[in-house]
Design brief:
Elements (H helix, E strand, L loop, with lengths): L10 H32 L4 H28 L10 H18 L5 H6 L2 H29 L1 H4 L3 H30 E5 L5 E5 L1 H25 L17 H9 L2 H31 L4 H28 L1 H22 L4 H37 L4 H29 L6 H4 L5 H28 L5 H15 L2
Antiparallel strand pairs: 1-2
Helix pairs in contact: 1-3, 1-5, 1-7, 1-8, 1-10, 2-5, 2-14, 3-5, 3-8, 5-14, 7-11, 7-13, 10-11, 10-13, 10-14, 10-16, 11-12, 11-13, 12-13, 12-16, 13-14, 13-17
Length: 476
């Protein structure tokens, strides 16, 4: 039977993969940028409880992420491919689950009558439904798909860049647009003008973003082609979950990139989540969050242009180390200066995003390097399983950021009932918000750079050698 001729890898695949992450981040970035603020200020749940629940949800992910990875590896390829069909299967469930998290904003008077236990139960059920089941069900196949689109290292680097661009576009829409419409200016009992979150507006925005996510997933499905054939070895031993996890523990590249991802997200998501507090509360301007998002986009765009030529010449890990240490310095300088002018703070944040941007552009290409390394080390190619562990690490990083931010907000005395009481946060709380927004990212960036420098083994020379070995193995 004549084999179907597939079109060459090109811009269509890159755009399709970009739309895939555009869809992902319409729900993911929405959760990292506003969900904690929504839970604390609209639903009235304490920041410490929110952070703890977000952390505990990751234990569910330890099961669902690995299970989804195993399902992907065990599934038989269809005419559309091995991973792509999951975009169709899960795009509607993940969109609905995301909207349900914010739906109480449409009935805030009803929510006020709920007991704390009911509020926490609703938060827990909807958050786990979205993150641990529906988002996992679409994100694991989507991420695993990169190695099936092309086996060329340059193509994979391009996919990583376009994936990050998709996230940037979603971040721009959410980060710039949402703060402008989701906050209301109200007068407190003491006569102060406060920026307060409007739950109804957030819920409506979440519904719109859910619809846009579905559209993006459908575009990704239409544009992407899986062209790297899956060939199961004739006498391949069936690898159990226990053995897969045992291999992972011994895999220095995988473990170190998992730790690096947790640290990256601790820094990145702390900056994003604290933006919902530092601008309306510390600087008294919710519009500042929108302007910060615009500056962030500029920094990320500069990084997207510079990333490929720099990493091609010096290596992905090497360039990432320098960019992370640069971001560390900027965070510390911001904390020392403690600018009273919001625009100075925004400019410094833009430099942070420039430093983070380079690593963000190449992190997805790094995981394909790890998948190649794992195949050489273990003799078995497990794209879905390796990506599932990596995805779990990213969710753990999200949980660490949310949990840490929540606990620290609780520690400094953040008043989650301030909206209901019509009062502002105290000066001590405002100082604490500034410290969290600068020192936690500084620590994350510093540790990330050190992990990539001293622990992660796949620097440029080793990556080039691995690619050559696999091409020889496949007769390419």
């Amino acid at each position: 039977m004549k084999q179907k001729t597939l079109r060459p890898f090109g811009l269509r695949d890159k755009l399709g993969y970009m739309f895939g992450d555009f869809g992902n981040d319409f729900t993911f970035i929405l959760s990292t940028s506003i969900l904690m603020k929504f839970y604390t200020d609209v639903m009235g749940v304490s920041a410490g409880v929110v952070g703890t629940l977000m952390m505990l949800a990751r234990f569910v992910d330890a099961i669902t992420d690995v299970t989804m990875g195993r399902i992907c590896d065990a599934s038989k390829p269809t005419a559309a491919g091995k991973f792509k069909p999951w975009l169709l299967r899960m795009c509607v469930p993940v969109a609905i689950a995301s909207f349900l998290m914010y739906a109480p904003g449409l009935a805030t008077d009803v929510v006020k009558s709920w007991s704390d236990g009911v509020r926490i139960a609703y938060l827990c059920i909807t958050y786990i439904l979205w993150g641990s089941f529906c988002y996992t069900g679409i994100n694991i196949p989507y991420g695993s798909m990169a190695s099936a689109i092309s086996s060329d290292a340059g193509d994979r680097a391009s996919l990583s860049t376009f994936r990050t661009m998709g996230g940037m576009l979603a971040g721009m829409v959410i980060g710039i647009g949402l703060p402008l419409i989701a906050f209301d200016e109200v007068t407190s009992a003491t006569g102060e003008t406060l920026s307060v979150l409007n739950g109804g507006k957030v819920a409506i925005a979440a519904g719109v973003f859910s619809v846009l996510a579905i559209v993006c997933y459908l575009l990704a499905y239409k544009l992407i082609t899986e062209r790297v054939p899956y060939k199961a070895p004739e006498k391949q031993e069936k690898v159990s979950v226990v053995k897969m996890l045992a291999n992972a523990v011994k895999n220095r590249a995988l473990i170190s990139i998992i730790v690096a991802s947790i640290l990256m997200l601790m820094a990145q998501l702390t900056m994003q989540s604290m933006g919902a507090y530092i601008y309306p509360d510390y600087y008294g301007s919710s519009a500042g969050q929108s302007m910060s998002s615009m500056v962030m986009m500029v920094g990320m765009l500069i990084a997207s242009v510079a990333a490929k030529p720099l990493t091609t010449k010096f290596g992905k890990a090497e360039v990432s180390i320098v960019s992370c240490l640069f971001a560390t310095v900027i965070c510390v300088v911001t904390w020392i200066l403690k600018p009273a002018n919001m625009w100075v703070f925004i400019a410094l944040q833009g430099l942070n995003w420039l430093g983070l941007g380079v690593f963000s552009m190449v992190c997805w290409a790094l995981i394909t390097d790890v998948i190649d390394y794992s195949e050489i080390k273990n003799g078995v190619r497990e794209d879905g399983s390796v990506y599932a562990l990596y995805s779990f690490a990213r969710k753990l990083g999200q949980a660490v950021a949310s949990g840490l931010a929540g606990w620290l907000l609780e520690m400094i005395g953040y008043n989650s009932k301030a909206l209901e009481q019509g009062v502002a946060q105290t000066p001590e709380v405002l100082d604490g918000i500034f410290n969290i927004a600068t020192l936690v990212p500084a620590l994350g960036f510093l540790l990330l750079g050190l992990v990539l420098w001293f622990w992660y083994p796949l620097h440029k020379k080793q990556v080039d050698a691995n690619i050559a070995a696999l091409k020889a193995k496949r007769g390419e």
